[in-house]
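Recap from last week: sequence in, structure out.
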Amino acid sequence: MTEAQVLEVGRQALWVLVQIALPVLIFGMVAGVLVSLFQAVTQIQEVTLTFVPKIAAVVVALVIFGPWMLATMVAFMVQLFSFVPR
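Predicted structure tokens:
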């Protein structure tokens, strides 16, 4: 395996990582911003109010995007394992 091939596999791995993490991070960020807005408007400073909606948003994102994430990871791993014999 040449140096260029190793770098290409690393680049592809980072891209797959970004693709898989992005939906979950976006859902969590949107939930966090909405909760922050709600807290700023109502002046409610409850600690659990910040965590529960974010966790729920992340779970919803995993339920919605889970099959796609799994298919993306499996496709990358199949490509990676098929590259090994060369």
